[in-house]
Design goal:
Elements: H1 2-10, H2 28-34, H3 47-57, E1 66-77, H4 86-94, E2 103-115, E3 120-124, H5 131-138, E4 148-156, E5 159-160, H6 165-168, E6 169-172, H7 184-195, H8 202-216, H9 236-248, E7 254-258, H10 266-281, E8 286-289, H11 295-299, E9 303-308, E10 311-317, H12 321-328, H13 338-344, H14 364-370, H15 372-383, H16 405-422, H17 424-444, H18 452-473, H19 477-492, H20 498-528, H21 535-566, H22 570-586, H23 602-607, H24 609-622, E11 640-641, E12 661-662, H25 679-685, H26 693-719, H27 733-748, E13 754-756, E14 761-763, H28 777-780, E15 787-797, H29 802-806, E16 812-823, E17 828-833, H30 839-846, E18 854-861, E19 864-865, E20 874-877, H31 889-900, H32 907-920, H33 941-953, E21 959-963, H34 971-986, E22 991-994, H35 1000-1003, E23 1008-1013, E24 1017-1023, H36 1029-1036, H37 1048-1055, H38 1079-1084, H39 1087-1109, H40 1125-1140, H41 1144-1164, H42 1172-1193, H43 1197-1210, H44 1217-1248, H45 1257-1285, H46 1289-1305, H47 1321-1326, H48 1330-1341
Parallel strand pairs: 3-8, 3-9, 6-7, 7-8, 17-22, 17-23, 20-21, 21-22
Antiparallel strand pairs: 1-2, 1-4, 4-5, 9-10, 11-12, 13-14, 15-16, 15-18, 18-19, 23-24
Amino acid sequence: FCFCFFLLVMDIDLSKSDQREEQWNTDDELLLEKFQERYQPGSNINFGEYCRAEMKRLGLDSGITLSWSNLSYTVMQAPKAEQGTLISNVKKLLQFWKRPKKVPYHLLNHVSGFIKPRMLTLLLGPPGAGKTTLLETLAGRKSVGNSAKMSGEILINGETWTPDFNRIAGYVAQDDYHIPLLTVREALTFSSMLRNHPDVDQEKRLERVDVVMDILGISHVAETPVGGELLRGVSGGERKRVSIGVEMVMCPSVLFMDEPTTGLDSSAAYDIIKSLRFLADAGVPIIVSLLQPSQELYNLFDSLILMDKRECAYFGPTNKCLEHFEQAGYTCPKNKNVAEFLLDICTVEEEQYRNAHKVPGQTLAEFYKTSETSMEVGRQLWNGVKPKDPEKTVLPSTRIFATDVGTQIKLCTKRSAAIFFRNRRAIIVRMLRSLVIGLLIGTLFWQMPITQLGGNNRISLVFFCITFTAMGAIASLPQVSEERRIFYHQRAAHFYRTVAHFLASIVMDIPLSFIEGIIFTTLVFWMTGMNDGLWWEQIIQFIVFVFVLLVSNLCAKQFCRVCAAATPTLGFASALAPAVLCIWLVFGGFLIPRTSIPVYWQLFNILSPFRYTLESLSINTLADLELNCTTTELVPPAPEPIHFCTNIGMGGCSCTWEMSTCNDTIPCGCQNVCPTPSGDSILVQYGLNTEQSFIYIDSVALVGFYAVFCLCTFFALDLLHWNSAGGAGPKSKADEEAALAAYRNRREGNIVEYMRDDDDYNMGAINEGSGVPLFSEVSAQSMGSSLVFSHLNYSVNIASGLKSKIRCQKQWKQLLFDVMGYAPAGRMIALMGATGAGKTTLLDVLAQRKTGGKMEGDVIVNGNFQDKYYNRLVGYVEQSNIFLPTLTVRETLQYSALMRLKADIPHSEKLKRVEETIDQLHLRDVSDQLVGDPESGGLSMELRKKLSIAAELVAEPAIFFLDEPTSGLDSQAAASVMETARIVANTGVPVICTIHQPSADLFYLFDWLLLLRPGGQTIYFGPLGEKGRTVLDFFGRHGLGCDEDKNPADFVLECSGAGIGNREDDPSVGFNIPSDFDCDATWLNSPEFQSLVEKMSEMTQEAEANSSNRGTSPTGFTSPYSVSMAKQVMLSVKRSFMNKYRQPTVIRSYFLMYLIMSLILGTLYYQLDLFQSDARNRVALIYFCIVFCALGAITSVPGIILQRAVYYRERPSFLRPFAYFVAQVLAEIPLVLISVFVFGSIVYGMCMSGTGAYTDPFSRYLFFISVYSLTTLTCTAYAMAVASAVATTEVANTIVGVSSSMFSLFAGFIIPKGSIPKFYLPFHYLSYYKYPLEALAINQMVGLNFTCYEYEKVYIEVGDTW
């Protein structure tokens, strides 16, 4: 009986109703009646009531029940690689077959739990605890295969997990997956139309879009493009709300959300979680992971999952967790944010919360497993967690996807069409490319004569069209890679099947390819005179020309799609696609005739699609064409050798037998022939068929290749999923001990002490007995500066369209309106405001990061107007943490210190300050770890943010700006980062920091507040006061109050207009800001504003007076850069070499590309002889080698684009463009030289040196290697120049591909110099392909005597003799 009583007392019901449920009407009949009419946009409704009514209308009672038992997820990962020396790294690169053995790494370890209808569950845990892995696993987003294993059991309504679960489950990922060109409404409508059950009619699906947009506060941007990195669209916070809306429009049966409030202000975050609370109360179970939940947010949840070290440390009610952890040995201080307490006890911070119950060495997960809470969860799982009536939780369906394949194809095609027609710039560029190149080719080959030279030019023109097609196809690689990322996410969410996305992409690619093909082929065909015969024959020839080139173009593009879909990275695809396209060109039949291809390479000729293009188009233009020969083309040419004449000495013949040649050819009966009398003879020379029927055979073959590539693309998309398994790898014991030691060091001595009054703060110093100070004692006293910004206005030009650009019309949008403020030395200012208030814009303007737009106003530093040396005073931590992934943390900081600290500081002292900063920001345990990429197991978001701060602090800035330094961090990491900023301010440096969701404790770290409202206007600038009292009093004078138990940071944000909806239905939260509150008038009419205006006037006058008296810069600097040009070049070159040669995959693929191609060419052109065909093959081989190195240079484009982002961050602060340029160029040279040396040695040795006719073979070999190396370096430098000048990889690939084809056209091989019109001769000399082709051809050909095969001889009948 005692045991039963104990169980009753300890019974935990995680799904019990909450009082919040009474806030909305639970009478289902009234709800159905309330929402019977069509929703009117702008109506203020309860989202929970709406969803409840929708469920009841469909015959559902609630969402599903989900349970999981002993859930584990394990991936096989290579051990963390140690950073070795250059020699060891080269050795590893060469020994590529020796791969480190992968070891199992548990991302989840025996996690159990469940969620029921009406449960809103909070998922907490420090970075790396397994939160995202748990959500992805439960949501069915984790793949299982050879490298990833999952064990345990997941049950839905007590039944085994089925593939159609993703159809009813919503999952909001950390990243945003949107097509930038779609509007907000289109993105939500696409999701609603595809993912809602067939029982939901179209009108209801569209209605849900309007409801969700109103609930999330994005109705005002409904017709605005979502945007992205390269397209201006909605703000980051609005884009995150679009991600949430994409899942909410389907009214899911269960909802998983991974950090949905990142990038939102605290008011907007609360409004969204409140909407989720209503949705949960309606019966939908929801799990939400949060990073920095306030106490108000925490109170909205009724259950909690706490993850620690990839294990479950607690699963139970939120109101029971403190009691649980009290027994575990941790006591939560009074008035402490519970979420912060829970996160702290999972880190080294846990020591401060220990009580007498703490068992030494026992982890939170170990205690939880033995607790009654865990036992109760186990009992419920054993008994089975399922609803009473499972049939009323999910609508019946036999489909895995909500819609049929036909509907999916229709909607995906409609979306692709919208993207196609909206991307007008891409359409115009592609049309202009076809038009310009078509006109150029048409005028270059204008009306080719029907002569021997004209016949050869025809087949050369066909080959160039093929080359142009191949070069242009490479430009599609970046687009496909970006599409693949979005496709993976949407397919996993069961938007559509692979076939729908695949067919939609093909359907919309064909029309554009057809249009640009029509433009190009029409100009080329009719202008060059490729038409002959009767008019109807010419029409057929034109149709064949258009069709074959179109299919060939589609083949090349589709093959590039295969490469992008089947390879893990864009860099890998950029190396593979050009290499294979080059192989196709070689085996196409032009560079080496089919008759010269060795037997063992015949299969490659058959497998080259360009073989069929060349043959069909050559037959189309040359078959049955009778050619004439000019006098210079006849054999023998005039004057003829005397023995070819039969009437010597006869009447009318002026020639005699004593002459060696005769010019009087006709009277003297001199005989000659035209060696190429027809187009068929040219076809035979190249080993091509001459029958017209082969046009259709080749066309069918091309269509077959296209179909095969389409199937390969489909299967690559359907079967492969290139993504990281996640996780940075297990931490070693030494790492954990180092982190604990760093924490204890900070706790014992490194304390921030400061005192406040209402007007200003008296800053104390860092405890002298602490660990290592942030800055040296010598410079700390003099490093701070004062900053004043007066009447700042900033506008950007939003005029769009070609017409506006041609007419230079500008349409200005003002982002900042008369912003004023000042930051004396040592003051820490919070820059706050709702989304769209212009916070980042203001920081960019103050830090001189804006390169466009129009700025008005003054920036004053230390009583003087800013000058060109101002950048040396500024440290700016941007939102994006951009670093080279191949450098370690220490190397990144050393580079920053050596480049930015004064030149007179000794080198050892600079390195010492790096170590000081590493200790100060607690980066010691990862100091030798590569920065890496977040998605591939690099530094966590917290560590990357700390590294961003450290990279600026190590330079000892006099003014410090931070833009959203806590975004993406949990509360403990955010506190650590902001404490660091406080320490910086205490050294005398003014700090201005934007922050979205500060807790009260973080808010109190600031001295003053600059508050902006949407639109970029100031509504408060002044001191916070103790516990924010001064700013609260300011708004209190106007009837706005903040309760003592509420966060004043949330209050000032709501005063600025933050938030999504009103709080009339929830009076217990919020601050009841009247809707008619005029924040502008409140500030402009305040004495604080008048005082600020007067102070700005005084400071401006003082700066004007100082500027008239000064002779040198008030900063004391004589250069915008800290170190000399030579020093910058040396440091930049060292970094570029480390970055370049720590990428074994890139190096290996580049080297193998040259090695494999050299072996192919060496065996294809093996030991060229001294016959006529070999003479042409020698020049063709040289030509192709030049084209190949140009295509190989394209592989460097993605790397340059990625590194450019780092350069853009560093250039305003310290980096000379020339130093960056030299470093990038020099880093490419070793790899190029080694690859070219191997390539050139193999090709020259196997193909060009076996004749024995040279007297100086070694010197010719050295000349070949030297010229070819220089050519490859030139091509690489050209590709780098293009990549540095354009916005995207796609544009760079397009420009490099098209221009390379133009350079090859005018080089003198495709069309001889004599056939180039005079007005195009400058292009011939501007083509840098001309010079290596000419030099290497002379080096190869001069000194050789060529003979003829029997079939190459031309027989002439002279009398009775041949």
